[in-house]
Amino acid sequence: METRIEATKAQHKIYRGFFLQLPNHTALRVSSRLRINYLVKFIGKRHDVKLQKSNLKTFSQAELKEYEKSYKSAKLWHGSGKYKYDINGEIVDVFANVLSSSSLNPARDVYAVIGGLDETHTISTTKLRIIARSYADTFGKGLEEKNRYGAASFWVTYHYSTFYAMLFSRYAVKTFRNWSKWRKKATNDDKSTAWGQKVNSQSEHVWDTFDLGSDISGNFPIIYGISRLRGGAVEIPKSFEKYEVRLGQPVKVSDLCHIEVPADRVAEVKRQLSRAGYDGAKVFAIELGEYYASMRDFHELVGL
Fold this sequence. Notes:
Blueprint: H1 2-33, H2 37-51, H3 61-71, E1 76-81, E2 83-85, E3 91-93, H4 94-101, E4 103-104, E5 107-109, E6 120-125, H5 129-136, H6 152-170, H7 172-186, H8 209-212, E7 221-226, E8 245-247, E9 251-252, E10 256-261, H9 266-275, E11 283-285, H10 286-294, H11 298-301
Parallel strand pairs: 10-11
Antiparallel strand pairs: 1-7, 2-3, 4-9, 5-6, 6-8, 7-10
């Protein structure tokens, strides 16, 4: 019961975040488009103060340089984790499945229904590592993850604030109609949202896991940097294209520039990759990726 209450609180926090971040994101987006650089930097610095760089684990220049080289070769990012629940509530080893099939594989995708398209099977990716990390943290401890350059819920609300504002202001009637369709496809019999329950059995809503994280023992976040694409992106509503990229073809392990996991899991994941025949696969600590992110300009991290 207590977790259910926390889930509802987390959902309300996300909704408040959308409204609170909207003016900031809009101002940053407009300033960037008009190339008002001093405003772009001013808005970014205001956020830097809130993101608490001093709490991050530090790394050497050599480590940063190696990470940066791999980071820059990534075209897309995918956030996932070690384990998830299947539709029957059984725990599945997601990473083991990736290794056994040698690829990330498309899964059921009902989100495009909101934009008026049909349900399909895709791999959900983003052009922004910080957003993939936010999704990956739902497989970890959510808000309780340490060494993070901003909580998952912060980045998600910031990133999607203008998206939902545009969606409901421009296409209000169509969106509400499609939203109803999506809810029917994306909810369980008890009216809880199936998407969140793949990582937390107590999840009730789409967004609560960004704070709650996973309730699967031993679970942890995994970020995949994708450097090679096989085939084009799946068609999604135009309104989605700036925010997400859906892939219809598997992504081979050999198509990855690197994998990121918590620092205390790096050695374990490297051993698993080696046993699967991927001795040369690069594995970095998520904490290193966060330290690198803290050195980038804020507008770069949000794709502006």
